[in-house]
Amino acid sequence: MKQRGCHPAWRVAIALSVMISACGGGGSGATAVSLSDAGTASPAIPTTPVVTPMPIEVSPNGAFNGTWVMGSPTTDAVVFNVHSADQAGNVTLDFGVNSLQYDQQVPTAALQIDKPLELRLQNLKPATRYFYRLRYQASNTKEWVLMPEYEFQTAKPPGQSFVFAIQGDSHPERLKTQFDADLYKRTLLRAAADKPDFYILSGDDFSVDTLNPATITATQVRERYTLQRPYLSLIGRTSPLFLVNGNHEQAARYLLDGTPNNVAVWAQNARNSLYSQPAPDTFYSGNLEQVPFIGLLRNYFAWTWGDALFVVIDPYWASPVAVDNQFGGVSKRQSMWDVTHGDAQYNWLKRTLEQSKAKYKFVFAHHVMGTGRGGIELAKLWEWGGESQNGQLEFAAQRPSWTTPIHQLMVANKVSIFFQGHDHIWVRQKLDGVTYQTLSQPADPNYTLWNSDAYLSGDKFPNTGYTRVTVNASQVKVEYVKTYLQKDEGPGKVHGEVAFSYTLP
Length: 505
Description:
The chain is an alpha+beta fold. The chain folds into 2 domains: 17-153, Immunoglobulins (Immunoglobulin-like, Sandwich), CATH 2.60.40; 164-504, Metallo-dependent phosphatases (Purple Acid Phosphatase, chain A, domain 2), CATH 3.60.21.10. Helices cover 14% and strands 25% of the residues. It has 8 helices and 27 strands. The chain has helices at residues 181-193, 218-226, 229-236, 263-274, 343-355, 382-385, 395-398, 406-412; strands at 17-20, 31-34, 67-71, 78-83, 89-96, 104-105, 109-111, 117-121, 129-138, 145-146, 150-153, 162-167, 199-201, 241-243, 285-286, 290-291, 295-296, 301-305, 308-312, 360-364, 417-420, 426-431, 434-438, 459-461, 465-471, 476-482, 498-504. An 8-stranded mixed beta sheet has the order 15-18-19-20-21-23-22-24, with helices on one face.
């Protein structure tokens, strides 16, 4: 298809301002330019994970050796995060509501080597699909390189149907045991073909804790986040990304030491600079705390899209102790009452659920309490369910300022589904009217049924794939889409097949 050149009368419908964060000074660290049930469980496949560092090649896209992903979509805006490890020059975006008929343009912005650039498209129409292309001009050249056309969707009002998709733990550092690069690409491309309005990652996608604590550097931590860019650009060019904090990321409060030189600061700044996550505004609510050397954490947030409320929560930044794995050690908590989502996050969650008039409510976390194995098996415990492991109800004594445990809070406010990763298996369970949905890994080449014995009930399926959710005014449909390497396809193993589906209500 013939690409069209620049029209002399481009309309600029974008407000632009430039914000450059000082190195190590907090904030994003990016240059910003604003403007019915069925299914059968599968048998367990025993295997032992081995953690292996994995480098990844950056595949050039024409003459532009960089990537871009979207984030923070609203009714009238979306943020493009553009990055190149080794190129500088100029970038712009042409866009419009018709394919290859772009009547709007982002003013040209300077791209620096290894410094993410945020392009914020504003004054967009709600509930509208936009088409765009990115253009790149290398330094000291006059030629512009045209990227292929892509598209995105602004937020929809109640009554309009939409699709979103979500993956479990990708663990790209666990080469071959739980991760295959080609399989990950096939999964992301298959998910992108569904044209979801957005894509959610449930955590453990940027594992920092396999790095040596004695020699770890900010550069090494950041590399864990840049490693994902070529992969996530496969879907992030059409579907904005939302990140859930995982236990292996080590973006956690207990690591703070009052200086900018610690792994928690490095991890969160890499996360916020390379993936444009939402800060509280008129569309999103969330964490208002300003953390020294970081700024806004952007670790928990909520938004409404169509008939659904979406809520992302995070225990790792609230807890004063390590929630799951201690960085550089193997010790586990003896008392899980030491682990907490914190008063501020709990009160925000309670207020968000109670005040929402959405027909459906979805809550996302890496895992129940951020640790352990299982779904509803853990839902009765600690501040999630109120009981200690000895069966004693100790919630009132342990959380005197809280009104009710988190599970009961979800029940009282009619949460439809709680989504979690962590366990590397796809399981659907239900407790007190709330569906607990555990998510598969997207790139396990062994198609393993990890941690099956931790789930005493439910519909259980092995890796690999993603979860597609269709929401409309009358129902929610959840589908587990299986993905395979081409060499592994065969009878009963069809890439993109739906292994299990259910509807709510």
